[in-house]
Amino acid sequence: MTTIKAQMPGVFYRRPAPEKPVYVDDGEEISQGQTIALIEVMKTFNEVKADESGTVAEFLVEDGDEVDVGQDIVRLGEV
Amino acid sequence: MRRVLVANRGEIAVRIIRAAHAAGLETVAVYSDADAQGRWVQLADTAVHIGKSAAAKSYLNSAALVEAAVSTGADAVHPGYGFLSERPGAAKEFADAGLTFVGPAVSTIEMMGDKAAARDAAKRAGVPVVPGSGAVGDVDEALAAAEDVGYPVLVKAAAGGGGRGIRPVASRDELAEVLPAAQAEARSAFSDDTVYLERAIDGARHIEVQILADHAGNVVHTFERDCSVQRRRQKLIEEAPAPGLAAETRASINDAAVRLARQVGYVGAGTVEFLLTPSGEFFFIEMNTRIQVEHPISEAITGVDLVSEQLRIAAGEPVSFSQDEVQIRGAAVELRINAEDPDNRFQPTPGDLSRLDLPGGPGVRVDTGFVAGDRISPFYDSMIAKLICSGPDRDTAFARGRQALAELRVEGVPTTVSMHRRLLDEPDLRAGAVHTKWLEELLPDST
């Protein structure tokens, strides 16, 4: 199973701002380097970028959840 | 008032618990998943778990806090700073549940949280505000308005905020050129092309005045603080009193803060923030309707316990002293020790605090919510401790600050300690010749 992992601990967000749409939807194709989420660490926001291309099979973390370093965030399917 | 719920975490929760216990009040602490071992949890009489680590699911969850207060029989809530402290909706929920909110009235929090309303209140109180115009529709209107405001001006998008949608303009010709572009930009960025003008103020200091007001209508100040050493609007070093302030300026700025508090019928502790220009003019920026991080330097120079006064006022008692009884004795400086890496653009650095040796001695106070072995969690702000160093004069306060930094040992996470060591010896800071952009100019690679 290919996944994208959290590079830092913090609070996970799927949207750039609460009133904005999600960065990517389930089933959407993404390319390497694309921003797919944010992780908030001590009030600073860090972009989570896809480390490879693929299709978003499933988000493994809910918007607003806590994540740890190395935790799987997204499961990728084949393009 | 018998039992106070402390709706906060970290050093300010510890600070409030100390003041409450000294006043003979019982305390209830609250904590999230990440904070079960928090120092404040141990110091309080009772503690209640209120939710997950993310602030939105714990310290910002007003319903959980109301429930914690009601279930423990608390009759008052102290919000500290940040979190729910300036949210009128939360203050109302506490009041509706029959709890005394340690802070001003809901309507006051609301008014001071609304930039335009706060500015109007300041004008009514005869407190100077940054010269500005109403909305300007076209170039002719803008040019006419700019004559009154005075160059250099900033063209600001009415719907902007947080530093976005602002263009500096130095002259008539430039304004004529910039205005249509600024309007177009505002339309595309904020879906609203309304712009207005404000005087651009260069080299200004951030001066703020601490006030206390009670239900009987007594309003006093405990003088001013200079918080000009900032990085991206985050204060790093604060001083009281403001160094090198002319006696006249000090008197009029402190008096202006008291006038504003009176004008709005303020009750509680509050801070009125001003910009002070190099020519000695000052302008109201905003009022913070809560206790502030840097309150201890005012305590150090006046001997007033501000948190204890907050509790007294909330209980319906008068402020414990009159204006004549409070004087500036000596000087104090606060150094914020943050889990941030000054060598890496001040990136926050959560991690395990493997060692925390704190300084001490005369004129050295340390406010912290941590002990060695604690985890600096990624969920909250990066402050580890505040060093408050004071003495009979400014040189002594700084010398004690330098010694305190030498004694302080923090291991496990990078901190701002090394930056403070350097800054305390900077000639500009020693001379009191700094302004709000000074630190960013000194450390150009840091932002």
Structure overview:
- The complex is a heterodimer of chains A (79) and B (447).
- Chain A has 79 residues and is mainly beta.
- Chain A is globular and about 35 Å long.
- Helix content of chain A is 0%, strand content 47%.
- Chain A has a 4-stranded antiparallel sheet, with no helix packed on it. A 4-stranded antiparallel sheet of chain A has the order 5-4-2-7, with no helix packed on it.
- Chain A contains no helices and 8 strands.
- The model of chain A has no long low-confidence stretch (mean pLDDT 89).
- Chain B folds into 3 domains: 3-102, Rossmann fold; 132-199, ATP-grasp fold, A domain (Dna Ligase, domain 1); 205-446, 2-Layer Sandwich (D-amino Acid Aminotransferase, Chain A, domain 1), CATH 3.30.470.
- Chain B is 33% helix and 29% strand.
- Chain B has 15 helices and 23 strands.
- In chain B, the strands form 6 sheets. Chain B has an 8-stranded antiparallel sheet with strand order 14-13-10-11-12-15-22-20, with helices on both faces.
- In chain B, strand 7 (153-161) and strand 8 (164-169) form a beta hairpin.
- The radius of gyration of chain B is 22 Å and the shape is globular.
- In chain B, 48% of the residues are buried.
- Chain A binds chain B through residues 8-11, 40-44, 64-66, and chain B through 33, 52-54, 56-57, 339, 347-348, 350, 378-382.
- Chain A: This is Biotin carboxyl carrier protein of acetyl-CoA carboxylase.
